[in-house]
């Protein structure tokens, strides 16, 4: 007998969500679940501080977190709902020409999502009741994987070794487990880095996400629960280095100008960080006894805020696929069989490819600096803003409620 039925590798937001969903799935109650992660969530996030690493949590992800028993552990005061999103071309104006505005009221939703700290979402998942009851935490890093016909075995950096019927890789874009399993990536690095921090602004953010497309990349202001805004500024590597290294006053001047003063002058209130951006998609999502979810399977540009949301949908889709196969096989089915895992792969690979194509297309469209293309782009944005069916399609996609969705988000 293997030591566990399922081992999730990586305990970040997506890996922890997968573990919590598996723990909540009553049809899988007799399965033994483990999660291997170097550290776990650590101490509870302080209520009076907001880390610079935040995510836009969609409606689908909210429902997944609710099902996982984690949403109740994210205090309302720490999640910032936003009801509108304003996107405009650098030669256009916010809420004017060359701009498109998305509003929750257009589709009868209370909001378009929430801006929440990554560490707070992760902590809430590890605190979920069923997670704590059923998931065994293996707090160590991964060093090796070996595959057999009936199981897969992981070796951890503290010398321990465990076998499982199925390994679920959720260890991020630089996935060690994916590399050890021999699954290749296709994609490329963007000639951009993202600079992230928090700022206070002269004018209130109005529970609105603001995004201006500049020549070197998009600049986003995401509303935080304490009235500040989280900044995600995608730009050239050289410019990103300048933005991180320059003094606070220079950064504030650059940011105020780049945002076209949409929220007035800004004041830096948190450390600045930068990281490289890339587009990547795994050639395969699975092999016998092994399956990929989240950033281990796909990495996207942050301009649409969809990275973690696509990963959450992966987790929900995989749990649904495993549950259906287990029940349908009268609990005799081998969950690590390729025929089972391929069902999940066909489902999520096509959905993710569509989302990635839309995001990558937007990145390249707004990166074109030819004047005639810029003029057409601004005209297209203005026309799109006046076309309700097209806007509804984009909003529903962003909410994670369009396409082939897992039952948990319906």
Q: Layout of helices and strands, plus pairs?
A:
Elements: E1 4-9, H1 13-24, E2 33-37, E3 54-57, H2 59-67, E4 80-82, E5 84-89, E6 99-103, E7 113-117, H3 118-127, H4 129-134, E8 135-139, E9 142-147, E10 152-156, E11 161-169, H5 176-181, E12 185-201, E13 208-214, E14 217-223, E15 229-235, H6 237-245, H7 248-258, E16 266-268, E17 273-282, E18 286-287, E19 290-292, E20 298-299, H8 307-328, H9 338-367, H10 371-385, H11 388-399
Parallel strand pairs: 1-2, 1-11, 2-8, 5-13, 11-19
Antiparallel strand pairs: 3-7, 4-7, 5-6, 9-10, 10-11, 12-15, 12-16, 12-17, 13-14, 14-15, 17-20, 18-19
Task: Explain what this protein looks like in three dimensions.
Helix 1 (13-24) links the parallel strand 1 (4-9) and strand 2. This protein has a single domain (4-187, 278-409), classed as 3-Layer(bba) Sandwich (FAD/NAD(P)-binding domain). It starts with a strand and ends in an 11-residue tail after the last helix. It is built from eleven helices and 20 strands. It is globular and about 65 Å long. By secondary structure, it is an alpha+beta fold. The strands form three sheets. Strands 5, 6, 12, 13, 14, 15, 16, 17 and 20 form a nine-stranded mixed beta sheet that branches. Strands 1, 2, 8, 9, 10, 11, 18 and 19 form an eight-stranded mixed beta sheet that branches. It has a three-stranded antiparallel beta sheet with strand order 3-7-4. Helix 1 (13-24) packs parallel to helix 3 and helix 8 (307-328) runs antiparallel to helix 9. It is 35% helix and 29% strand. It has helices spanning 13-24, 59-67, 118-127, 129-134, 176-181, 237-245, 248-258, 307-328, 338-367, 371-385, 388-399; strands spanning 4-9, 33-37, 54-57, 80-82, 84-89, 99-103, 113-117, 135-139, 142-147, 152-156, 161-169, 185-201, 208-214, 217-223, 229-235, 266-268, 273-282, 286-287, 290-292, 298-299.
